[in-house]
């Protein structure tokens, strides 16, 4: 096993060093992050693995706070001698003040000396002050390669060019832009690629890491859409028979809404888990969620109305909006359903389902199911959440607002959902154990459709919103 | 993965799937011990999932339930074998227990082969068109297994068992093996009974027909006999066949030829197809069985990944935070009576400097670099002032270096105050940090320009 590459994350106080580390190791619980200065006062590390082989060690360090004073002190220590950088640093580390006034700085420098590379985190909103240049001078003195990371680049106040010029004057030309709040999708890749340029010997490991992380990201993405597909199939296949009097219908509608809400919540939790956010993570609250839930109710009549002007009849009326009575007969004619059943091979299944419904019709019972429009809302909401999760670092500190969408994803529901309408036995809300290969197959198909259509749809609606 | 699938490995997979199904329907187990165990034992992702499941299964007595389920299944099969012995006997007895020991050849054939071939056709149709559903025999075995163990947990094990097999469509080969094996046994028992009856009793063979001619009959007997002939079974000569149409031919030779023909037909059409199918199913079963593994794409497994095979792991604290955090001492002012100065600390270049001040106030400029710091401090030490206004931008985060500078400058004034340039872009939390730092220095500060007035008065 190769020795893992050791990185020290260094920088001024309160520029987001711990946040960068959290994002890189995908662990929102690492260290302590706050908007206050000098939150981290100790050196803490984490390992990154590829298939159980440790390839990278990252160390979080306290912020440098008094570079000017330290530089003064170093000059005093060298007392006119011509010393090279590392010698100056080692003289400082052996001095008195390294344990007193500059204890924090001494820790940073000790860690940097023990590392292969220093990642110098910059708050790109800051002007390039003299103290930052002094900081860099001290860090460069350690004799280790330094890779600057521009944080907060997605804000308006970002001074990218100023920093680029200043760094070039100090002889540092590599520069990575990496917003820890909303890391670009290829941010980690670019970071590691730049590291590979700085450290030729670590190149194979870093390329392996890039490849591994891309694979992981793809896996997470697919799993995410699978979870959404499962949700939609569950909801689409959820329908119950009730007696047709007013009271039992309204009761059943309420139960149905409650169940659907719960199911949606389960999907949110699954998505959070796939992206390794915990619900009680301090930052999970900054997702488009409030206490881990969407703030808009799924069955809010206003939301349904906004979503689609021509929502199906009854979809937006009454207290129990979004729940269709007699959905099977309204949404899908018996003939069309039978045809669908015949085409898709589930002839027998379809027949038995419709037989039940037909009998229900005769005996004066009603069918209750969730409207198409609610399925669409679900698809969009969960899609947006997934989208937000992909673009979210584990150090995010601002809430992402869900956009209001005024259009439908689909004119007609995708085939798998139409099929699910006729397969009550696919619904995990109604059956404790759902073991059906056909369902599994349809979830797969739907997941593929979602993967293709949801990002496209979200992209379009963003453009429309602009 | 070409891992050898032995019984133990299969059982582990089975337990893992059972645990997965349980967790999917009833929520997760408290598994921190199991996760620790799995991580300690290491291995690839699948191995870790299996270690975790094994550990959880141990705790919930699922392992015991599994071994009793296995025993019960074995017993079910044994019971079926005993059944097949009786069925085999039963196929023979009705035909061969006739009073006068005269046997209608085609009734005998029907008894020996009819049910067998009918079931064979059904099984083949089931294999080709039946989809994935379990046959009645399969249901019976599951039912029997449940009855034999009487444990509640076995009911949880069975769906996982078939789910696991379904991955490679193994359940059809397993059931095929069971069906064909049982029919093989039945046929062999029938053969044994037939031989023992033929050996100990004297039978005469006849055939009867109402509408067919004896020519047809000869053709049928010869056609049926042609395959067994390849294995050395005789075909009755044509004259014998014609003669057996009226009365049984009671010569020893004729009886032996008919008996041998009958045995041959039973072997070739009853036993051989079942034997071949049994071996075929066994081969398919073993092929798939050896290649069974977990479907790691299942979301339940995927969600375990971060904990079982973490991509990162904390290394802990390497250098702890200082236990005694150096306290900033309040600034002690001197007693100078004269002079006023305004100084900016780390302000942006774009900030309009100096602010509107009276002519008598000294403008010390904006301090940023090391040299500028030294210069201002030197100047202040030599020429202390009565009033010093320090202008700071709270958009910078406050740090020890800046606070040191402020306190050193304040030391050289009779009264020093700080003006924090707050605007709409100021981060309130950073501002709070400034307030806290300045309070430790016991310095007066404000967020508005009122201090410019203070600076100008009474000089």
Folded structure, characterized:
The complex is a heterodimer of chains A (466) and B (459). Chain A has 466 residues and is an alpha/beta fold. Chain A has 16 helices and nine strands. In chain A, strands 2-3-1-4-5-6 form a six-stranded mixed β-sheet, sandwiched between helices. A three-stranded antiparallel β-sheet of chain A has the order 7-9-8, sandwiched between helices. The longest helix of chain A is centred in the middle third of the chain and has 34 residues. Chain A is elongated. In chain A, 47% of the residues are buried. About 10% of the residues of chain A have low confidence. In chain B, 61% of the residues lie in helices and 10% in strands. The two termini of chain B are 89 Å apart. At the A-B interface, strand 2, strand 3, helix 2, helix 4 and helix 5 of A face helix 7, helix 12, strand 3, helix 13 and helix 14 of B. Strand 2 of chain A pairs antiparallel with strand 3 of chain B, so a sheet runs across the interface.
The biggest sheet of chain B, with number of strands, parallel, antiparallel or mixed sense and barrel status, is:
5 strands, parallel
Number of helices of chain A: 16
The secondary structure category of chain B is alpha/beta
Q: Name the strands of the widest sheet of chain B in spatial order.
A: 5-4-6-7-8
Extended strand count of chain B: 8
- Whole-angstrom Rg of chain B: 48 Å
- Please list the strands of the largest sheet of chain A in the order they lie side by side: 2-3-1-4-5-6
Which pair has the most extensive contact? A-B, 66 and 52 residues
Helix/strand-derived category of chain A reads: alpha/beta
